[in-house]
From TrEMBL:
This is Acetylornithine aminotransferase. The gene is argD. HAMAP family: ArgD_aminotrans_3 (MF_01107). It is found in: Cytoplasm. Gene3D superfamilies: Aspartate Aminotransferase, domain 1 (3.90.1150.10), Type I PLP-dependent aspartate aminotransferase-like (Major domain) (3.40.640.10). GO terms for molecular function: transaminase activity. Keywords: Amino-acid biosynthesis, Aminotransferase, Arginine biosynthesis, Cytoplasm, Pyridoxal phosphate, Transferase. The modification N6-(pyridoxal phosphate)lysine is found at residue 250. Belongs to the class-III pyridoxal-phosphate-dependent aminotransferase family. ArgD subfamily. Homodimer.
């Protein structure tokens, strides 16, 4: 059967608008499409491919596990799940782990746990969840309602109740909403989809203090910022603030679907047998690959390498802007970076992404005004230099048309 982009329109639900080309092979930070054209990948599968494409440690883990055991369901546990849970507990504040298949499912579990904890400890009235405008926590109905973007949550009927939204980096807006009936405050310690927004120290530490004051849980959604993305193993480690619940996915599997919710024993005890579950959660294949990815990233060499690569990207971006004057600031941390377009190019982030793809460079957007990059954490420096040269070509053509 001939597979082409037109087949997507024929057989797939039209909720995506994928690129015209179809990638068929990846290696490191490079991709090749059906016609053999090569691309440099600064998109990283939206911060998923933390070790690039087909990293030998991940390929080896998958092949080895494929010959052993694929699936059991949660009537039994398995060795890779226990090994990965132990690695997560040993490396973080957490004492207990729950496995799911995605960031949205990890967040769903975190929100359900927070509600159940509050009900058991304080009573039914303690159910309010505070989240943030322009936040993103997944596409289930609960998580999309908590995420503060109406474009994603409107149009599906009545929403889950008792969810309110404050303004990110505005502590007063949180103070205005939080009360003794607040069960949890959920936020990204580096906003991704909302525009690559870094929290201020005053804000993030103030939110922690407010949660303590009102007996509310602090939930960090580290689906995009976790597993080395910021140059810390998890972003909270660089903020001086420890959450009560943390969610992780995306890079956790390096490309294999897996998510996890991490928390303490005292909070975890409220998810007793039968209160929550997942048929595939803790799948041996996913956990074997996840363990290989996690252990590879969780090394001083890789984490320090992220910060070194960030400096290289920033240097290139500053030079690009000095040449073309297209953006107001570079945002983000580690290898979750973005540049916010200036007034002349408002609303044109997608144009920059498409122009880059035409030159053979894959990038992302974070809203209409921010161009985003989330490449492999081990991307070779030569690929950064070559990719930025391609971006220069793309920008030159766009600026010439402006």
């Amino acid at each position: 059967m001939q597979v082409s982009r037109s087949l997507f329109d024929e057989v797939m639900v039209p909720n995506y608008a994928p690129a015209p080309m179809i990638p068929v092979k990846g290696q490191g930070s490079r991709l090749w499409d059906q016609s053999g054209r090569e691309y440099i990948d600064f998109a990283g599968g939206i911060a998923v491919n933390c070790l690039g494409h087909c990293h030998p440690a991940l390929v080896s883990a998958l092949k080895e596990q494929a010959d052993k055991l694929w699936h059991l369901s949660n009537t039994m546990t398995n060795e890779p799940a226990l090994q990965l849970a132990k690695a997560l507990v040993d490396a973080t504040f957490a004492e207990k782990v729950y496995f799911a298949n995605s960031g949205a499912e990890a967040n769903e579990a975190a929100l359900k746990l927070a509600r159940r904890w509050a009900k058991n400890e304080f009573g039914e009235q303690k159910s309010q969840i505070i989240a943030f405008k322009q936040g993103f926590h997944g596409r289930t109905f609960f998580t999309v309602t908590v995420g503060g973007q109406a474009a994603y949550s409107d149009g599906f009927g009545p929403k889950p109740a008792d969810i309110v939204h404050a303004e990110y980096n505005n502590l007063d807006s949180v103070k205005a909403l939080i009360n003794d009936n607040t069960c949890a405050v959920m936020l990204e310690p580096l906003q991704g989809e909302g525009g690559i927004i870094t929290p201020t120290a005053e804000f993030i530490q103030g939110v922690r203090a407010l949660c303590d004051q009102h007996n509310a849980l602090l939930i960090f959604d580290e689906v995009q910022s976790g597993v080395g993305r910021t140059g810390e193993l998890y972003a909270y480690m660089g903020l001086g603030v420890t959450p009560d619940i943390l969610t992780t996915a995306k890079a956790l599997g390096g490309g294999f679907p897996i998510g996890a919710m991490l928390t303490t024993t005292a909070i975890a005890k409220h998810l007793v047998v039968g209160t929550h579950g997942s048929t595939y959660g803790g799948n041996p294949l996913a956990c074997a690959v996840g363990l290989a990815a996690f252990n590879t990233v969780n090394s001083p060499a890789v984490l320090q390498g992220v910060k070194e690569r960030e400096a290289v990207f920033r240097e290139h971006l500053q030079a690009l802007n000095a040449k073309y004057n297209i953006f107001t600031e570079i945002r983000g941390q580690g290898l979750l970076l973005g540049f916010a377009l200036n007034e002349q190019y408002q609303g044109k982030a997608r144009d920059f992404m498409l122009a880059a793809a035409d030159e053979g460079l894959l990038m992302l957007v974070a809203g209409p005004n921010v161009v985003r990059m989330a490449p492999s954490l081990v991307i070779p420096l030569d690929d950064i230099h070559q990719g930025m040269a391609l971006l220069d070509k793309a920008v030159a053509k766009l600026v010439a048309k402006a």
